[in-house]
Amino acid sequence: MRQKLATRHDTGAAADRYKWVALANTTAAVFMSVLDGSIVLIALPAIFRGIHLDPLAPGNVGYLLWMIMGYRLVQAVFVVPVGRLGDMFGRVKIYNYGFAVFTIASILLSFDPFHGGRGAVWLIGWRMLQAIGGSMLTANSAAILTDAFPADQRGFALGINQVAGLAGQFIGLVAGGLLAIWDWRAVFWVNVPVGVFGTLWAYRRLHDNGERNPGRIDWWGNITFAVGLSAVLVAITNGIHPYRDHAMGWANPQVYGLLAGGVVLLGVFGVIESRVAEPMFQIGLLRIRAFTAGNAASFATRLAQGGLQFMLIIWLQGIWLPLHGYDYSDTPLWAGIFLLPLTGGFLVAGPVSGLLSDRFGARGFATAGMVVFGASFVGLMLLPVDFPYWAFALLIALNGVGTGMFSSPNSSAIMSSVPARQRGAASGMRSTFQNSGTSLSIGVFFSLMIAGLAGSLPHTLTSGLQRQGVPSGVAHQVGGLPPVSSLFAAILGVNPIRTLLAPSGALSGLPVANQRTLTGREFFPHLISAPFHHGLVVVFAVSTALAALAALASLLRGGRVTPSTGTPLPARTPLPARTPLEKDTMALSTIDPKPALVVIDLQKGILTIPAAHPIEEVVRRSANLAEAFRRHHLPVVLVNATGRAPGRTEAGSAMPADFTPPPDWADLADELDVQPEDHLVTKTTWGAFHETPLHARLQELGVTQVVLTGVATSAGVESTARAAHEHGYHVVLATDAMTDRDADAHQNSVERIFPKLGETATTDEILDLLEKTRPEAGV
């Protein structure tokens, strides 16, 4: 006995150590992956100088756009397929491959052998491979953490993970500025030691402890999804790019062709996924309310937030920092520093809200976070262009706090709401909604801003240049340039007017005083501030509306997530007091959209065996549940047993070995009132899943939750509950609709075994919650 206890203690200690290893490794991976999406942004001037390419020259803006957008686009497309591969072949295995791919791509990026356009293509291509490695990391990290941590600690773990992600996004701005001063290649070298160490660490210490869901790859689903989403995102990216004499590419028929083709392919993808046996995108998960509402809120949040970084950088680098005495060449580094309150707000709120949501539920924290998030955008709209920094810092810190309050609880609720065997696919879907929202946000924000600037900037810029003596022809030529050139000049930290006038050589022919005015720190900010502020108001107003939608979706997710199954808890009403026998069990939280009632062995032969509780009550309550499930058009599965498994002896069986059952021994109790639509399953062992079609039938019906009743509690019911739990179903046990020959055995199952497998409730509690969650069906 002592040896067994020692073994259990060692196993528990090992599991406790492992979860912290998993958290540390995945946090480093997520930080590295997200950091690389922003570190390049600040280093772009140094990178383009290193490959001898002027990104603002005619025809080169596309290289700049794809350096910024390509990484996020690839991540948006690939996270679902690699998440599904993690479910099929092992989450840790795919995660380890991701570390290796990311590291190899980082090495290749730093050894660009080309210059000019070819050098840019080299960088864009390997950045996309790097993004695939990053997708393999981010798609599986949340699933690995969900496997490793118990449900009552997942919010904290995922909160730390998400804090690392956002911290990487903004720390990358500062790191990119510092490393680019040394060498542009250093922004890629920094990943190499982390990647090598992380790969070896993950290979040696991480292991798959989640459930596997093997199957075939959904090739047509993967192809239509990848091509369709890519077409939509490429179209939006091209929409920012100038087209002929238009400020943006929305006049380009190719953009609309890509959009239409992408939408059609995504529609075809939806049809394919609803029909194939093993889909890549688990459409069935969208029937889980907490999963759908959480992802809808997450998508709206990323749509509101994704382009925020660029707008704030342009605001700081193009206007505020020059007005406050900073040289244009220094603005990229200082913009990253001045944006640190945003990271600080998230760093504080993320782990705290994750920890508290484990105890009090996700809905309140996530919804309140979106209210704070939306309020920060209202405050930013009201700021003047030349703002007092304390007010700006306070508002972006509130924005970070709101995001932190939302992100950790929301991710925990999403991941806890799905069966264990589908966590990889669920994590991939979650990341797809987030990355797609970010990519769309960048395109939408830039389009709104450029549209606002296009109406007034050309005239303002032309007249301002003419007042400083620039020849009329040159002034009109510069004023007619696409506004995107001015915006990207601000992002790249170059002097906008010097850059715009350089091709004509007009600047050198002006008086020295005029040259100083044009290239000084005040001319361009004053020129652009009014039209830019108008665009900011439009952008932040859209973000405020999206934050309100995210708050509404979060509010509609359902209530608290329980530690046992992760299912959303509806608004609670007082339940009848539980009996002393059930005082330590996990109470029922909700009924899934598609549950099934499974009644075990309530057959005439077994019902004659003496039981610890009145068998008539067990049958009556089971019959009441069956009638209610039928009325709500939910599956009822009636299980009976015949004989014994071949070659098996039943130690302790109530029946002698030579027992010959009467003809009606396996007939179900008359009180169950078997109906034609009921599903009948016959077994030869204790459990109803072993060598029966039960699991396949439940999968065909889309069932995610099983409610168990019947006899015997410690044999047929417990064995079936264990198998249901291992298959990934949410398990509910109607403890007053089951019994056993031995009262102690019944009590042991109810108090010690069932809380580990699912939730328990009385028949009345289940019936009450069934009516509350399906009022329309009860009419």
From TrEMBL:
Membrane topology: Multi-pass membrane protein
Transmembrane region(s): 20-43, 63-82, 94-111, 123-145, 157-180, 186-203, 223-243, 255-272, 293-321, 333-352, 364-383, 389-407, 439-457, 532-556
Any one GO MF annotation of this record: transmembrane transporter activity
Xref: Pfam families: Isochorismatase, MFS_1
Gene Ontology CC: one annotated term: plasma membrane
Superkingdom of the organism of origin: Bacteria
Domain Major facilitator superfamily (MFS) profile stretches: 22-562
UniProt keyword Phosphoprotein present: no
Main location: membrane
Alphabetic keyword roster: Membrane, Transmembrane, Transmembrane helix, Transport
The UniProt record lists the keyword Transcription: no
Location relative to the cell: Cell membrane
Name used for this protein in its record: Nicotinamidase-related amidase
Gene source species: Actinoallomurus bryophytorum
